[in-house]
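Morning!

As promised:
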Amino acid sequence: MFQYVGPVANLIAALSKLPGVGPKTAQRLAFYLLHASEAEAKALTDAILEAKAKVHQCSVCCNLTDIDPCQVCSDPLRDKSIICVVEEPKDVLALEKTREYKGQYHVLHGAISPMEGIGPDDLKVKELLKRLSGQEIREVVIATNPNVEGEATALYLARLLKPMGIKVTRIAHGLPVGGELEYADEMTLARAFEGRRELE
Amino acid sequence: MFQYVGPVANLIAALSKLPGVGPKTAQRLAFYLLHASEAEAKALTDAILEAKAKVHQCSVCCNLTDIDPCQVCSDPLRDKSIICVVEEPKDVLALEKTREYKGQYHVLHGAISPMEGIGPDDLKVKELLKRLSGQEIREVVIATNPNVEGEATALYLARLLKPMGIKVTRIAHGLPVGGELEYADEMTLARAFEGRRELE
């Protein structure tokens, strides 16, 4: 039976490692790339390599950026006194699409998950505490995902920040419980933001 | 509203061009690659560039290969007197999985589609005729997709080859009509191969 070995097999294997890409999709992407022009394939590899080389975490909010501080942190028009805490960079994009929020962000790069051995020290919590001690912050909005890990993270942060006299709020469960922030529609996300309540 | 510009936006745009990858999937793949190790990202870009540099069409059967003639064409154990004509390289892989067929292949790189302006001259038909004139071929099995374009291509080839005294067969419609060869299960494909009939 004929099977690809060498460059085609390597390409399919490399593509299979991408999230949500199974063997069939990897094969289809591989043949697409082999049929594509040299220029298009090079545009893709250049984009990957350039992003890997230039993109890093913002020294303030830990979001991914190619400038430092990032676009949001260095924008003088945004409210410096409110920080919205999210799990991942994609959550910042999701919230920005609602056009409801004009404050700062803080990206944790994950959520507390004892099952996966992820504790607060694996998240950008120290960086958040540093921001809170250095600046006058009137509110921290916790916008972690409305699932087990996100709720655990929200509770942890609330217990950590409340004794510091900081107002800590949680976005409302307008989101379907058990879901992920990334997939909520913009109206639901906007309503969730509006209906945020102080953590007791 | 904050949106990525620069390297992250470029990466998302480049990934969006892949087939079946919408803006949301492109964003997820981009953040995955940004979080991945340098080594993993480089493995992917190297695999793409190496495949683009080394993989070309076999001078005999037009399948994609990094050696010439390809693995199938240069295999002395395979029957040289039967050629199975398919639309795309992925169809060769699908047929090989049935383990029923031990002959040669010919990859057309498409199908006749007046709607898309693709005629016989855009396919590897000349290359097929050259093979048929140079070699003793007892049968040509046409395994183009069982949809409009594939059937049109099969009919065209049958009318072209029959006057040359070559036995031309078509794989049976064990496949769901209107579907695509790539997604058929292996048993159905094997039955379709067995039940092939001569084109009248």
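The mean pLDDT of chain B is 90.

Hope this helps with the figure draft.
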